[in-house]
């Protein structure tokens, strides 16, 4: 494959691709393989049709179109990787020549990632957070563990704070049961503040078998709009009362925590180490976030609208998924917040999209400036890791595609560039 790159502007190039017949032969083989996956031919299982048989049973026009499509995508990806071109939109393609026996010639007009003016990395100053673990933090975890290993004994007396009661309850508002306000055999530790204020206090003093109506008012800042500040009645029946006695914090508790622990000191040391490692991860993440924040804020980054629009689509999808997890649709969210969709995009979505796009552009330039590279072996390792994580032939097939491989390589380069930038900032602090 021969290429001739003509620079049109700082963010646009025109590339002439000249593929010989051998190049085209390879792409034709890939096309036949792809077309053969869904081809049904008598005497052969689906997906197991030999290449030579596939060629005889597919329309020539379909074979040509598929070959052209694969050739264009593969050639552009190969050239982009070789020349380190950061393509940001679908190229415009003009096919000049095509012949299986002679080759293919086409011109692709490609929009490139703009080159930002980055801040001098030595000007990024971030204070490193010191990590320490207090004895009280270790003891808090010990207490919670002892509580989880607590002995529970059913008693006949009235319930008191710290007891675990099993209850049936039904919440009623304006004479009607409300959604989420009903349960049977619900375990509740009195004093845990799991319910709205007043609910658990009202159960204190009740015995197993007793029923009671509890009149309460939901907090004005309650998350469910229909229940904010609402007056309700809970019909409660206590099924059982259990006295909870926490396990004693000693060597025996440590042994119950795991075979590796012989003494309480062993368990404390392990807890302390875990807390320390967790704090170090959090401190590192916080440090990295601040480095990236300063990188964007102190750099001059011009964004093409195509990049912003791509991020707007991505952020919108992400936010809608998060809303769905909360039981909210886009329409319901807009209604509750008195926003039009245009206002929502402009006020809430676009600022996030712009921030992400700027960071992406900045990090791409960081990778260039630091000459960050990853090997094919690194990409292979990542593909292997993903293939183990996500099973299935379709997914493994996708992982083998040049597009996915290129995306993975770019992602690994960016991640490595972030690590290298953070290391530089730490060195220069």
Describe this structure as you would to a colleague.
The chain is α+β, with helices and mostly antiparallel strands and 429 residues long. The protein has three domains: 2-111, 2-Layer Sandwich (Alpha-Beta Plaits), CATH 3.30.70.1050; 151-245, Chitinase A, domain 3; 264-428, Trigger factor, domain 2 (Orthogonal Bundle). The protein contains 13 helices and nine strands. The chain has helices at residues 21-36, 51-57, 60-83, 135-148, 199-203, 251-257, 264-297, 305-325, 330-336, 341-369, 376-389, 393-399, 402-428; strands at 2-9, 12-20, 92-99, 103-111, 151-154, 164-173, 176-189, 211-217, 231-245. The strands form two sheets. Strands 5, 6, 7, 8 and 9 form a five-stranded antiparallel beta sheet that branches. A four-stranded antiparallel beta sheet has the order 1-2-4-3. α4 (135-148) crosses α7 (264-297), α6 (251-257) packs across α7 (264-297) and α8 packs across α10 (341-369). The longest helix is centred in the middle third of the chain and has 34 residues, at 264-297. The protein is elongated. It starts with a strand and ends with a helix. The mean pLDDT is 91.
- Oligomer description: single chain
Please give the radius of gyration in angstroms: 32 Å
Uncertain segments: none
How many strands? 9
- Domain module tally: 3
Mean pLDDT metric = 91
Gross morphology is elongated
Helix content: 40-55%
CATH class (first level) name of the largest domain: Mainly Alpha
Strand % is 15-25%
Describe the secondary-structure layout.
Blueprint: E1 2-9, E2 12-20, H1 21-36, H2 51-57, H3 60-83, E3 92-99, E4 103-111, H4 135-148, E5 151-154, E6 164-173, E7 176-189, H5 199-203, E8 211-217, E9 231-245, H6 251-257, H7 264-297, H8 305-325, H9 330-336, H10 341-369, H11 376-389, H12 393-399, H13 402-428
Antiparallel strand pairs: 1-2, 2-4, 3-4, 5-9, 6-7, 6-9, 8-9
Helix pairs in contact: 1-3, 4-7, 6-7, 7-10, 7-13, 8-10, 10-13, 11-13
